[in-house]
C-alpha cells in the first residue's frame, strides 16, 4: 500500500534516499521493498528510545503490549500494521501507524517527538491522513473512508491534537482501557475522521 500511495502524493511522500531541504516536512512509509526495509532499524529504534526519554512512550503504548522499542520494531514489520515516519529534513520527528483495518475503516495512531510539537505536528498529521486516505483496493477504489482514534481519557493533549486534525468525538466507553504502568482504568474517548473529499483515482 505504501508504494501505491507514493504515486498519489509524489511530492509529499518520500523515502530516506530523497534529497530534502533542512526544514521540509516529509513522510517515509515504512515498508519492505525488494527485501530491504525503507528505514534502517537503528533509525526506528532511535526514535522510540527518544520517546522513552521524553516520557511519551508509556502514554502511547499504555496497554503494555509494546514494552520496548524492539517490541515496536517487530510490530512495525508485521503486515497488520502500516507505519509511516515523519521527517524534518533528514531528522525524524515522529511516526504514525494504521491497524485494525476492517471494511472501510482503520484505527490511526500518532506519536511525535517534543521538537515537533506546534505547527509541524498539524502539518504532518494532515499529510499522514492524506496518505492513509490515498490507499486503494485492487479495483482502484478507496480502501478507507473513516479513520478511528481511541484515546485514554487522561490524555488531553492527544485529544486536543486530533481535534485540530478534524477528528470528531463520538463518545466515551467507561473503564475500557487500563494502564500497564499505573494499573489505572480509564475511559476510552472515541474519535473519528471521515474522508473530506470525493476520492480521485490517479491514472498513471
Question: What does this molecule look like?
Answer:
The protein is built from 6 helices and 9 strands; from the N terminus they run αβββαααβββαβαββ. The longest helix is centred in the middle third of the chain and has 15 residues, at 119-133. It is of the alpha+beta class. α2 packs across α4.
Order of strands across the main sheet = 1-4-5-6-7-9-8
Given as residue ranges, the uncertain stretches (5+ residues, pLDDT < 50) are 1-13
CATH architecture title: 3-Layer(aba) Sandwich
List the helices and strands in order.
HEEEHHHEEEHEHEE
Q: Class in CATH?
A: Alpha Beta
CATH superfamily: Gcn5-related N-acetyltransferase (GNAT)
Mean pLDDT: 87
Q: What's the helix count?
A: 6
Q: What kind of assembly state do the chains in view correspond to? A: single chain
Distance between the termini: 16 Å
Overall spatial form: globular
At CATH level 3, the topology is Aminopeptidase
The level of helicity is 25-40%
Total domain count: 1
Descriptive terms for the model:
single chain, 204 residues, Aminopeptidase, disordered N terminus
Question: What is the secondary structure topology, with strand pairs?
Answer:
Blueprint: H1 2-8, E1 25-29, E2 32-33, E3 36-37, H2 41-54, H3 57-60, H4 69-76, E4 82-88, E5 91-102, E6 105-112, H5 119-133, E7 146-152, H6 156-164, E8 168-178, E9 185-194
Parallel strand pairs: 6-7
Antiparallel strand pairs: 1-4, 2-3, 4-5, 5-6, 7-9, 8-9
Give a short summary of the structure.
The chain has helices at residues 2-8, 41-54, 57-60, 69-76, 119-133, 156-164, and strands at 25-29, 32-33, 36-37, 82-88, 91-102, 105-112, 146-152, 168-178, 185-194.
